[in-house]
Amino acid sequence: MADKIKSLEEIYRFSLPIKEHQIVEKFLGDKLKDEVMKIVPVQKQTRAGQRTRFKAIVVVGDNNGHVGLGVKCSKEVATAIRGAIIAAKLAVIPIRRGYWGSAFGDVHTVPCKVTGKCGSVRVRLVPAPRGAGIVAATVSKKVLTYAGLRDVYTSSGGQTRTLGNFAMATYNAIAKTYAYLTPDEWAPTKFEPTPYQEFSDLLVAQGKIAEKSSQLVEGAH
């Protein structure tokens, strides 16, 4: 509300949780695209018989270093898709990109070899030279494209026919790109105060306003 945080990177830098999907929409806006990867009916056996619901798997991304994956189950297809899109936006993560060989032009591939796993599915991403394209199956290719990667070699194993696990394994792999501390980041780091510390006065003031309004509501009742 007060526009104190200017970008998603500030949120990621301090590992702050994103509790509302509108936060992601505000920073990424029209650049954020979404795609329904699969809608599958799932059943639960009850005393009255089988209860069928629909599970939607959705990927969102801005094709420029941010991607999210969401899964939602609901009685209606439209509700499942809507819930999966919100879940995917809340799960948006930053992707670190790099070069294969010489560091010229824009970043185009993963900075190092990374591996992700979900269920029995294991996905390995390997840096590729310019022009190689995304050498991957349809499912992982969509996730990598929405993340903004242009050249990647992939290797997968396990029950890749299970689309949900395959997509999640790819998502987990690219999430690890920021888990490695490369030599260019070995310099001493100057720690900055977190937004909670920096804007503590504002947060205290807003807390008092919320407390006063709740007291007024209680008094009215």
From TrEMBL:
Biological processes per GO annotation: translation
InterPro entries documented for this protein: Ribosomal_Su5_D2-typ_SF, Ribosomal_uS5, Ribosomal_uS5_C, Ribosomal_uS5_euk/arc, Ribosomal_uS5_N, Ribosomal_uS5_N_CS, Ribsml_uS5_D2-typ_fold_subgr
Domain of life the protein comes from: Eukaryota
GO molecular function list: RNA binding; structural constituent of ribosome
Membrane-spanning segments: none
Domain S5 DRBM: 32-95
NCBIfam families: uS5_euk_arch
Name by which UniProt lists this protein: Small ribosomal subunit protein uS5
